[in-house]
Amino acid sequence: GREEEEDVLCAARACSRLFGALLERRELFVGQLPAEEASLADNCSAEDKYKIWMRHRYNDCVDCLAELMGHDAFQVKELSLCTLMKFVELEAQYPLIKVEWKGSLTFPRELLKVVVDGLLSLNEDASLLISRFQEYLEYDDIRYFVIKAVTESIGQVMQKTKEKPLPFYQQNVFSLISPINMPNKECDMVKFMVKQDNWEELKVSKLQAHKQAFEKMWLSFLKHKLPTGLYKKVLVILHDSILPYMNEPTLMIDFLTVAYGIGGAISLLALNGLFILIHQHNLEYPDFYKKLYSLLDHSIYHVKYRARFFHMADLFLSSS
Known about the structure:
The protein is mostly helical and 320 residues long. The chain is built from 14 helices and no strands. It has helices spanning 2-24, 36-39, 46-68, 74-93, 109-119, 127-133, 140-158, 167-177, 207-222, 228-242, 253-260, 264-281, 288-294, 306-318. The N and C termini lie far apart (66 Å). This is NOC4L protein. Belongs to the CBF/MAK21 family. The chain crosses the membrane at residues 255-278. It comes from Thalassarche chlororhynchos (Atlantic yellow-nosed albatross).
């Protein structure tokens, strides 16, 4: 009830203050964390025992917050999300990983993956929480690692479903990735949550690496059968939000061919995508006109995209 919710919020705020301070003061154990029992053996200094014990409590806290991202109350979800993101920022600044060699990146990828997994619920629409998360995607480093985490999540979740769509999960992935604003030029990438020392050498500062990760994410999302309504949503944003940021836009042919097979307005939108690939990316696609003519049956006169269809047909047929 309401009281229990208040207690949870108070506890989360207390943990946020406590572990936030410990991260800043570097009082949590850094490196490969020993099991709690082992560390209580005598060969550790009292200070190490304390740090190891506290680091285990911090891990418990993170697990707990991850679970609370699935709480019924939105306020609890939101506070859990924001607390975890505060920890991401602090761990990026004060890493809990020992820097093994000069070129290694100490960004807390695992912690960010916990957040992404929390946003991509399998059994409810998480769009409200996801929209709360959008502001973090303005940071180039966060965006890069979120893209990587989403790709990993899709691999883990979708391979289990044996080609049956998972409507909530796939809609949540779409809600998270469709508004992503990709940088256009390397010099646009100036907003990082945390600058690492050897920044220049790292992939996270390279536009090419961002595009590669972005392309891989979309292709892994689109290679699985989608709930029908999602085909339309993807096709509508394809032109502006997806194709321009892919290294090889023509890799979308398979997806467009599957979408074309669905029929009705979706076929029409898929043809539009193919047309863009032919027109702007020099794709050779001999079947294009065959597909266009096969849509010209009676049913097209009833499609609510009728005006758009005739406009496109005109465009396609007048194209050299």
